[in-house]
Amino acid sequence: MRHPVLAPICVALAMTVAACQKPGDTDVDRAVQDVLASDESSLTGIMMTVADPDEAIRYFRRLLEEDPDKISARRGLAQSLIRAQRPAEAATAWAAVLRHPDAGNEDRVNYADALIRIGEWDKAEAELDRIPPTFETYRRYRLEAMVADGNGEWAKADSFYETAAGLTTKPAGVFNNWGYSKLTRGDFKGAERLFVNALTYDPGLFTAKNNLVLARGAQRKYELPVVRMTQTERAQLYHTLALTAIKQGDVAIGRGLLEQAIETHPQHFEAAVQARRALEAQG
Question: What InterPro entries does the record point to (predicted)?
Fold first, then answer.
């Protein structure tokens, strides 16, 4: 996303004001600088959020060539690298942000997030440990929960997930992750409850629907839950439930669920067809 109009407007404004300016009129100078700073801030915000990530990366690198100590440009580059799915480079960029004297706790959270994305869990944990407990944000506790999960520290993970959920107005993702954690521990009822909570906040979250079916299937509840779903989603959930049943030895039930998945899908459902063929080959 380019904004070619921005620079000409600023230049024109500066020239117009300069033509009217009297010697020593510092208030006018300050007004021009405020406008320019405001425009740069707006463009930086756009680049960090909705602009094409690769273009944003080029933009922030140009800013850093002009002013290597500009922390907003360092942050913009690091965030743009995350958006561009380049987490290893983003981790390096966030480390550069932290070397700036104006870096803060949120920058360290972002660095930990980038480290987790590249599998550097121990380093991420060390960074999170450096953040004071008084810095309480949703993102901080979501990462703390993920690290605790990875360490098998279930009580800590549960506490962090609960805290994170309470610090956001959109906790569906937290409940889904927490439920998956419960699922891997074998607490299927607890997982089922958390997936339902996730769907309460985001009825369209298909990952939570699929995980809910897994949790129910692990309890041998082979009927689909009463949640909002499209026809295609219904077929996919039948397929998930079928595979769960087959894995648990309930082959006849699984075969019937595969048939329902194939019949329900509005198009050809290749994955379910292949699963049915595999069952038929086994007799």
Answer: TPR-like_helical_dom_sf
